[in-house]
C-alpha cells in the first residue's frame, strides 16, 4: 500500500473519531432538559437577578408551550423547591397530579424527617387552577402561615411549607 | 429526530404542558450506525497497513458488531424508551475500537511467536473477545428486560454487601496469576470477580448511605473550615478502608483496592456534602498505600517500575513492559504512526489487555488518545447527568457510584500505563481483552440506562382522579 494512502487513512481516521466526539457533544447540547438545578448559595442571597437570568434564557419547551395557544393566561408552568435539601429542583406542571412525600414513588421524593411518606399532593381542578391538598400528614402542610385542612387553591408565588421544604409555583 | 409532543389536554383541563420529553431512540440509532462504521474503517485500515489488502474478515466482523449493536438498540427501544441516547453508542464504539486493536495485535508476528514459545500454540484473541461482547450484550439485555425499576435493587442492600464480600474474598483461595490474586477458576473458565463486585458493592454503598447519610452529615464539629465527623461515625469509612487494605495485602491488587475505596469516598461525599470526607479519604488512602508498599514486595516492585522504568534493575526483572509502554506513547507523537504500523507489540505480556492503551497511544497518537479519553469522559458525564435527573436518592447515589467507579477505573489504568501512578492490574473498560471486564461493563451501562430511563420518563398522564371529583374545593 502506498505511503500516501496510509497517511490519508491515518488522518482520516482521526478526523472521523473526533467527528464522533463532536456529534456526541451536539447531541448532549440538544438534550438539555430534565430537572434544573440552580446554585444554592445564589438562590438564598438574592432571588431576583436569578429570575431575570432565567427569563433571558427560556428553555425551548416553554417556547413550544406558548405556541400551543390554549394555555390559561397567568397559569404557573413549574413547581420550584425553594428551601430544603432539594433546593433548586423544578418540576414542569403538565396538568398531572404531583405527589409529595417520602414514599419512593412520589413525584418529588422528599428527604425530610418532618415529612410523611404520602404528605401532600398538588393537582389542577377543572378550570386549571392548581390545588394543594394535605393527605393526612403528621406535621401538616402550610400554605403561607396557615395549616391546610381542606384542598386549597394556590395563589401565585405563595410558599407551601412541608417540614423543612418550601415549594412555590412559578410562571 | 422524534420529538413527540404529548398533548395532555382533556376537555375539562385547560392547563396544557406539552413538554413531551422526546424519546431519543432515533438519535441513538444514527449514532450507533456511526459507532459501528468507525471500527469497520479502522479494521480496513489495519488490514491495508499490515497485509496490503482489505481483510477478509471485514464483513463478518462488521456484521457481528452491527448485530450486537442492533440487538442492544432494539432492547433499549422496547424496554427503556426514554433512556439516554449516548450511553449505548459510546460503549459500542469503545468496544469496536478495542476489538480492532486486539485483532491488530493478533496479526503481530512477535506476539504469535511469543505465544508459541510460551504455550506451544497461538490462538487469536479477537474472535473470543467478540464472543465475550455478545455475552455482555446478553447481560445488558437481561438487565433491561428483568430489572423494571432500579429501586428494586435497594431491597438487596445488605445481601449485595455479602455477595460483594464473597466475590472479593474468593480469589484468595485460588492460585495467584502473574503475582496478583484476582482470578477465580471454575473448570476451564477464569473469572475476575472484582469486575462484578464493583457493580454489586455500588448497590450496597448507595443503599447504605441513603439511610445513614443524615447521621454522617449532621453530627459534626466545625474546625478550621472543615466539618469533623464524630468518632463513632468514622466506623463505616474505617471498615471500608480496612477492607480495601486487606485486598491490597492478600490479593496484591492495587487497582481493585483503589477502586473500592475511591468509589466509597465519592458516594459518601455526594451523600453528605461534607468536604471533610474527601480530605479524610485522601489521607487514609495515602497512609494505607505507603504503609502497605513498605512491606509488600509485589507492590514495591510496581512502585519501583513506576519511579525508575528505565533502570537496569527493573528492565532485567519482569517489568520492561512499563518502559516499552512509555516508548510506545512517545513514538506515537501527536498524530500517531497509523493503525497497524506501530511497534506496541514489543510490550509482549498483556499487550492486548492491561497495556492496550499503549497501542492506541502509538498508532493514533495524542490526538487519538485524547478522543478516546473524551469518549470515556462522555460516558461518565452521562452517568452523572443521570444522577442529577434521577428523582429518588437511591437512584442518584447508585448512578454516581457506578459512573465514579467507571471513571476511577479509567484513571487507574490510563494513569498506570502512562506512568502517572504505579501500574495496577486492571483493564481499560470495553477496550481491553477480557471476558469479565466486558460483561461487567455492559451490565454497568445497562443499569445506568435503566436509571436514566426512569429519570427521563415523562410524568404519567393526568389520571382522572376520583378523589378530586368528590372533594369540594373551597375558594376564598
Descriptive overview:
The complex is a heterodimer of chains A (171) and B (476). In chain A, 30% of the residues lie in helices and 24% in strands. Chain A has helices at residues 3-29, 40-45, 47-56, 60-68, and strands spanning 78-83, 90-92, 98-101, 108-109, 120-124, 130-134, 141-143, 146-147, 152-153, 160-162, 165-170. The longest helix of chain A is centred in the first third of the chain and has 27 residues, at 3-29. Chain B contains 18 helices and four strands. Chain B has helices at residues 25-51, 58-79, 87-106, 109-119, 126-146, 157-169, 193-218, 235-250, 254-272, 275-293, 297-307, 312-316, 320-332, 356-363, 365-389, 393-418, 435-456, 466-470; strands at 184-186, 189-191, 220-223, 226-229. In chain B, strand 1 and strand 2 (189-191) form a beta hairpin. In chain B, helix 3 (87-106) packs antiparallel against helix 5 (126-146), helix 6 (157-169) packs across helix 7 (193-218) and helix 14 (356-363) crosses helix 15. The longest helix of chain B is centred in the N-terminal third of the chain and has 27 residues, at 25-51. Chain B starts with 24 loop residues before the first helix and ends in a 6-residue tail after the last helix. The model of chain B is unreliable at 1-20 and 468-472 (pLDDT under 50). At the A-B interface, helix 1, helix 4, strand 4, strand 6 and strand 9 of A face helix 1, helix 3 and helix 15 of B.
Amino acid at each position: 500500500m502506498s505511503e500516501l494512502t496510509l497517511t490519508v487513512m491515518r488522518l482520516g481516521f482521526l478526523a472521523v473519531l473526533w467527528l464522533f466526539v463532536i456529534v456526541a457533544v451536539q447531541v448532549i447540547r440538544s438534550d438539555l432538559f430534565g430537572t434544573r438545578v440552580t446554585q444554592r448559595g445564589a438562590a438564598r442571597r438574592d432571588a431576583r437577578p436569578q429570575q431575570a437570568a432565567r427569563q433571558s434564557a427560556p428553555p425551548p419547551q416553554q417556547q413550544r408551550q406558548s405556541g400551543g395557544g390554549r394555555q390559561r393566561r397567568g397559569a404557573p408552568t413549574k413547581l420550584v423547591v425553594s428551601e430544603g435539601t432539594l433546593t433548586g429542583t423544578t418540576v414542569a406542571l403538565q396538568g398531572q397530579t404531583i405527589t409529595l412525600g417520602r414514599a419512593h414513588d412520589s413525584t418529588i421524593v422528599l428527604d425530610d424527617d418532618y415529612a410523611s411518606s404520602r404528605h401532600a399532593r398538588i393537582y389542577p381542578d377543572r378550570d386549571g387552577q392548581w390545588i394543594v391538598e394535605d393527605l393526612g400528614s403528621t406535621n401538616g402542610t402550610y400554605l403561607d402561615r396557615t395549616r391546610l385542612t381542606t384542598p386549597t387553591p394556590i395563589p401565585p408565588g405563595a410558599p407551601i411549607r412541608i417540614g423543612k421544604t418550601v415549594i412555590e409555583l412559578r410562571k | 429526530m422524534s420529538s413527540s409532543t404529548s398533548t395532555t389536554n382533556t376537555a375539562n383541563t385547560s392547563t396544557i404542558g406539552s413538554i413531551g420529553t422526546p424519546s431519543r431512540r432515533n438519535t441513538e440509532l444514527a449514532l450507533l450506525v456511526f459507532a459501528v462504521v468507525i471500527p469497520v474503517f479502522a479494521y480496513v485500515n489495519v488490514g491495508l497497513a499490515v497485509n496490503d489488502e482489505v481483510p477478509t474478515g471485514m464483513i463478518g466482523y462488521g456484521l457481528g458488531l452491527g448485530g450486537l449493536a442492533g440487538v442492544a438498540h432494539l432492547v433499549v427501544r422496547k424496554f427503556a424508551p426514554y433512556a439516554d441516547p449516548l450511553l449505548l453508542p459510546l460503549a459500542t464504539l469503545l468496544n469496536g475500537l478495542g476489538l480492532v486493536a486486539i485483532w491488530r495485535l493478533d496479526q503481530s508476528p512477535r506476539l504469535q511467536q511469543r505465544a508459541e514459545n510460551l504455550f506451544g500454540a497461538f490462538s487469536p484473541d479477537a474472535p473470543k473477545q467478540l464472543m465475550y461482547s455478545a455475552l455482555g450484550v446478553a447481560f445488558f439485555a437481561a438487565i433491561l428486560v428483568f430489572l423494571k425499576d432500579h429501586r428494586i435493587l435497594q431491597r438487596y442492600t445488605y445481601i449485595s454487601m455479602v455477595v460483594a464480600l464473597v466475590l472479593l474474598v474468593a480469589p484468595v483461595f485460588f492460585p495467584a496469576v502473574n503475582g496478583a490474586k484476582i482470578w477465580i477458576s471454575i473448570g476451564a473458565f477464569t473469572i475476575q470477580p472484582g469486575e462484578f463486585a464493583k457493580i454489586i458493592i455500588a448497590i450496597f454503598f448507595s443503599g447504605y448511605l441513603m439511610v445513614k447519610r443524615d447521621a454522617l452529615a449532621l453530627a459534626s464539629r466545625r474546625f478550621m473550615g472543615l466539618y469533623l465527623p464524630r468518632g463513632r461515625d468514622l466506623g463505616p469509612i474505617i471498615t471500608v478502608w480496612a477492607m480495601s487494605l486487606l485486598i491490597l495485602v492478600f490479593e496484591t491488587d492495587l487497582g481493585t483496592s483503589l477502586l473500592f475505596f475511591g468509589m466509597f469516598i465519592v458516594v459518601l461525599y455526594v451523600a453528605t456534602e461534607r468536604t471533610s470526607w474527601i480530605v479524610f479519604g485522601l489521607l487514609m488512602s495515602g497512609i494505607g498505600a505507603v504503609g502497605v508498599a513498605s512491606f509488600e514486595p509485589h507492590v514495591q516492585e510496581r512502585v519501583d517500575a513506576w519511579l525508575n522504568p528505565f533502570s537496569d534493575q527493573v528492565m532485567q526483572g519482569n517489568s520492561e513492559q512499563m518502559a516499552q509502554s512509555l516508548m510506545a506513547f512517545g513514538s506515537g507523537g501527536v498524530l500517531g504512526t497509523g493503525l497497524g504500523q506501530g511497534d506496541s507489540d514489543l510490550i509482549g505480556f498483556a499487550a492486548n489487555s492491561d497495556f492496550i492503551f499503549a497501542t492506541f497511544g502509538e498508532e493514533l497518537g495524542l490526538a487519538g488518545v485524547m478522543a478516546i479519553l473524551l469518549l470515556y469522559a462522555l460516558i461518565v458525564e452521562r452517568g452523572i447527568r443521570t444522577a442529577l435527573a434521577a428523582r429518588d436518592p437511591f437512584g442518584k447515589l447508585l448512578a454516581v457510584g457506578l459512573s465514579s467507579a467507571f471513571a476511577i477505573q479509567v484513571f487507574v489504568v490510563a494513569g498506570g500505563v502512562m506512568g502517572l501512578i504505579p501500574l495496577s492490574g486492571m483493564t481499560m473498560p470495553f477496550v481491553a481483552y477480557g471476558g469479565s471486564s466486558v460483561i461487567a461493563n455492559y451490565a454497568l451501562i445497562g443499569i445506568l440506562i435503566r436509571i436514566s430511563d426512569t429519570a427521563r420518563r415523562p410524568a404519567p398522564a393526568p389520571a382522572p382522579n376520583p378523589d378530586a371529583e368528590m372533594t369540594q374545593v373551597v375558594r376564598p
